[in-house]
Design goal:
Elements lengths: L1 H21 L8 H12 L21 H19 L4 H31 L1 H13 L2 H5 L5 H17 L3 H15 L3 H14 L5 H27 L5 H11 L13 H11 L9 H4 L4 H14 L13 H18 L5 H29 L3 H13 L7 E4 L1 H5 L13 E3 L6 H4 L4 E5 L6 H9 L4 E11 L7 E11 L1
Parallel strand pairs: 1-2, 1-3
Antiparallel strand pairs: 3-5, 4-5
Length: 480
């Protein structure tokens, strides 16, 4: 079985790196951490040159996650620089390092699952995770949620290995440094341990106090240095989201959205295994309780995104894996059992097909990254010095400091410039639905059209073709 585990590990890492290759660009919600990694690698102690001083975002975020990734990435990015490689390769490296950190912590968690539930369950946990799209896709995305996944998975492994002291200590790091709402998820785990008497209230208080004295000073010291003022980033984030409830400015979803939309997309057909978990293996109750509690409580906040509950996916997959393991072990008992085992394998194929479709659709969602790469390919050898203005859509869908590859070019992201001010740039990357729309007409008089980038627009069903699903695209950005 250890050989099977090693093969699955190779597939897991390879699949995650393949996702990076297919979708190498990032979106605006990932920009803070990614720009921080760039600045740590390229500006070092010259904090005044950092991107967050120009584009601070709505709330401050911690530098501790980007700092860890940058330190690990530094030898590889330095080697690429010495060999004359593109700065864009650095972006791929930091994302690869991040996914390796997440998957490394996932392996530690899976080892704890194997100790607690058995080898079959840990094997099915890996198979389910590989067949689904979102966990592996987000594992390389430099989001605060992804950064938090590392200590969350480590804390869950301590929990399953019956090490409450380290569980509390590592759980506190994820809550105090990265995502305060994890207090609901990991707090539910701790509540179970208190109720059944596996941990005493005194230990919780002592370890909790030590955690406060370690993690809060650490994040305050590091982040105050980089932000240039005294602050505890996650405290400001929680005040913004919970007290001011400003997160709803970015959209609201219905109360049960996580249950009927996010979870089915994240878990795919494996979701059908969850209702059977507490029936076939009562041990899974301890897995389902904190997940359902966390998602239910988090549903009370109006603004919802799938990535906000990503920490529950490995735990829910563990419960689903327990169901799959029990059904697979019993596969030879009857004809019905054999049919069920075939359905288990078939559901993995179904998940993979859905993941392939989602990956292709996702690759069309980064027109800004595609546009700036296209501009470099068209002009870098012919125009050593130029100035390019990148509009809001381009910056939100793939443009980062890593993609600004030519040192002698001027890259400008200033918003709300007049047509006259934009006309002073030698090149423009502008949003538009059609080449001859009214707002582009003025620029076509002063600039030459040199390229167009399309993006995802929808899915259309055409039952006369195979497969009967067609992915449609539309013009998104024009390069002038």
């Amino acid at each position: 079985m250890r050989l099977v585990e090693k093969v699955l590990d190779c597939l897991l890492y390879s699949l995650s790196l393949f996702y990076i290759a297919v979708c190498p660009f990032t979106k605006v919600e990932e920009s803070y951490n990614l720009q921080a990694m760039h600045d740590l690698l390229h500006h070092g102690a010259d904090v005044d040159q950092y991107d967050h001083h120009t584009f601070p975002g709505v709330v401050p975020r911690t530098f501790l996650g980007p700092l860890c990734v940058a330190i690990i990435s530094f030898p590889l990015t330095s080697m690429v620089t010495l060999l004359g490689g593109s700065k864009f390769i650095h972006q791929l490296i930091v994302r690869a390092v991040l996914t390796c950190l997440v998957l490394g912590s996932f392996r530690v968690y899976r080892s704890a699952v194997r100790n607690r539930f058995g080898t079959q369950v840990s094997t099915w946990l890996t198979l389910l995770t590989m067949s689904q799209f979102h966990f592996l896709f987000y594992s390389s995305r430099p989001l605060p949620n992804t950064m938090a996944l590392v200590p969350v998975l480590l804390s869950l492994s301590f929990w399953l290995n019956s090490n409450p002291t380290m569980f509390i200590f590592t759980a506190a790091s994820s809550i105090l440094i990265f995502r305060g709402e994890l207090a609901m998820f990991l707090g539910a785990v701790l509540l179970m341990e208190l109720v059944v008497g596996k941990v005493s209230l005194l230990r919780v208080l002592v370890v909790g106090l030590i955690s406060l004295l370690v993690w809060i000073p650490l994040t305050v010291a590091v982040d105050s240095f980089f932000w240039g003022r005294l602050l505890w980033p996650e405290a400001e984030v929680m005040y913004f989201n919970l007290v001011l409830n400003k997160s709803s400015d970015w959209g609201v979803q219905p109360l049960l959205w996580y249950f009927y939309s996010a979870l089915p997309r994240a878990l795919g057909s494996s979701l059908l295994l969850l209702p059977l978990a507490p029936i076939l293996d009562r041990r899974t109750i301890i897995l389902l309780f904190p997940c359902i509690t966390f998602i239910s409580l988090y549903s009370l906040l109006p603004h919802k995104e799938l990535r906000f509950i990503i920490y529950t996916f490995p735990v829910l997959n563990t419960a689903a894996g327990a169901t799959a393991a029990r059904l697979w072990i019993n596969r030879s008992k009857s004809s019905l059992s054999r049919l069920i085992s075939l359905a288990l394998l078939g559901h993995l194929v179904l998940n993979l097909l859905a993941s392939s479709t989602l990956l292709y659709v996702s690759s069309l969602n980064y027109p800004g990254g595609q546009a700036i790469r296209t501009l470099h390919q068209l002009e870098v050898s012919t125009t050593p010095h130029l100035s390019v203005h990148l509009d809001v859509l381009a910056c939100q869908t793939g443009v980062t400091r890593f993609t600004q590859e030519v040192p002698d070019w001027v890259y400008d992201k200033t918003e709300d410039l007049s047509d006259e001010e934009l006309g002073r740039f030698s090149h423009l990357v502008v949003a538009g639905q059609h080449r001859y729309t009214l707002h582009l007409k003025h620029f076509l008089k002063t600039h030459k059209f040199i390229g167009q980038v399309d993006s995802f627009s929808g899915i259309r069903f055409n039952y006369t073709n195979f497969p009967p699903v067609e992915v449609e695209s539309k013009p998104a950005l024009y390069i002038l």
